[in-house]
Amino acid sequence: MELQNKRGFASDNNSGVHPNILNALTKVNNGHTIAYGDDPYTSEAEKIFKSIFGEHVNVFFVFIGSAANVLGIKAATQPHNSIICPETAHIHVDECGAPERFTGCKVIPVPTPDGKLTVELVKQHLHGFGFQHHAQPKVISISQPTELGTLYTPTEIKALSELAHEHNMYLHMDGARIANAAVALKLSFKEFTTDVGVDILSFGGTKNGMMYGEAIVFFAPELKENFMYTRKQGLQLASKMRYISAQFTAYLANNQWKQTAEHANNMAKLLAEKINKIPQIQITQKVEVNGVFAIVPPQIIPKLQEQYFFYEWDENRSEVRWMTSWDTTEDDINNFVKLVKELVTQIG
Questions:
Q1: pLDDT of 266 over the 70 cut
Q2: What does the DSSP assignment read for 97-133?
Q3: Residue 1: its pLDDT value, please?
Q4: Where are the domains of the chain?
Q5: In Å, how far are 114, 145, 255, 287, 327 from 264, measured between CA atoms?
């Protein structure tokens, strides 16, 4: 099997589409329906989101996670504002400056040991309110789970939302892998979003078996005002929106999201369990969802990548990231670990 078609450990973005999602797309691919979201399939998906998060929420579907983050934050900010996030945040590292370009805001990255913001870390940047020479803090942005695979507890999220609201700010959550977080925490989505004061949520599905499509969920009602125009200007108003909406309906119905996320998480735990038995490799972060971060002998990384595609996370210390997916198998794990052991043995 060619490497490009072989299941690797680079990203859950690399995985295929779950059969149930493909079936859902086939079912709506019949006849005509009104475009741009004025169709019954989008209405049904919106109702499901409201049943999960609360009737007061407003939901807007977009194509990709970066757009969900950027446009969601744009709804809450003016160009003179600032956005506070961990230095590992996707909006800081992996969105090509899009948050700054489209919002005009200053992004303030905060160093953290585990990818998580705390009240103490954020407070250091809450100054200059009302001072015209200083960018005005407006959004605290967190990822759940973080880019390091760690998790916020509901208590930690609530503390950050209360801090934000005390300063007339909003709390944004990048939930690209929110299903993996819910499974790991053994909580409903609502318990660590609605119930603890999240204002803006980027709700992801692409990394967990969907073909494409993310949702922006606004908990603060004022944020929806004029957002239909923001989404259009942001080039994220899908004409054939039913193909996004139908995916979310299938994804959220019958716990499809839970089954796929649980499997991905379990595969990461299995990988970590086996890797932990190799003394030459050090796992660097607590394995809570579907990512394993590890320091690996540098000389074996290129040889591993010849067989299994994955990324180096921090080249300076030979740290790699291995991601598991909804379709990762135990054989994938066993064969990968076997190769790791062989290569480690060769270097002595």
A1: yes
A2: THHHHHH-PEEEEE--SSS---HHHHHTT---TT-TT
A3: 41
A4: 3-14+256-347, 19-254
A5: 21, 14, 14, 12, 7
**Is pLDDT above 90 for 3?**
no
Q: What is the pLDDT of residue 253?
A: 87
Give me the percent of the chain exceeding a pLDDT of 70: 98
CA–CA separation, 84 vs 127, rounded Å? 12
Q: What mean pLDDT do residues 5-21 have?
A: 93
**Contact, 117 vs 144, CB < 8 A?**
no
135-193: per-residue pLDDT in tens? 999 999 999 999 999 999 999 999 999 999 999 999 999 999 999 999 999 999 999 99
Strand residue runs (E) in 120-232: 136-143, 170-175, 200-204, 214-218
Q: What residues pair up with 218 in beta bridges, in sequence order?
A: 58, 200
81, containing H or E segment: strand 81-86
C-alpha separations of 316 from 199, 297, 313, 319, 347 in Å:
37, 12, 9, 8, 20
* Mean pLDDT score, 8-15: 96
Q: What kind of fold does domain 19-254 have according to CATH? A: Aspartate Aminotransferase; domain 2 (3.40.640)
- Using CB atoms within 10 Å of the CB of residue 44, give its burial: 0 to 12 exposed, 13 to 18 middle, 19+ buried: middle
Quick check: 296 and 318 in contact, CB under 8 A? yes
Is pLDDT at 299 greater than 70 in this prediction?
yes
Phi and psi based region of residue 199 (left: phi greater than 0; alpha: psi -120 to 50; beta: remaining):
alpha
Under a CB-based contact definition with an 8 Å cutoff, are residues 107 and 85 in contact? yes
Count of beta carbons in the 10 Å neighbourhood of residue 283: 16
Helix (H, G, I), strand (E, B), or coil: what is residue 58?
strand
* Backbone φ, ψ for residue 16 (5° rounding): -80, -170
The phi and psi torsions of 274 (rounded to 5 degrees) equal -75, -40
Q: Percentage of residues in the chain with pLDDT exceeding 90? A: 97
User: What is 3-14+256-347's CATH number?
Assistant: 3.90.1150.10
Whether 222 has a pLDDT exceeding 70, the answer reads: yes
- What is the radius of gyration, based on Cα positions, of the chain? 21
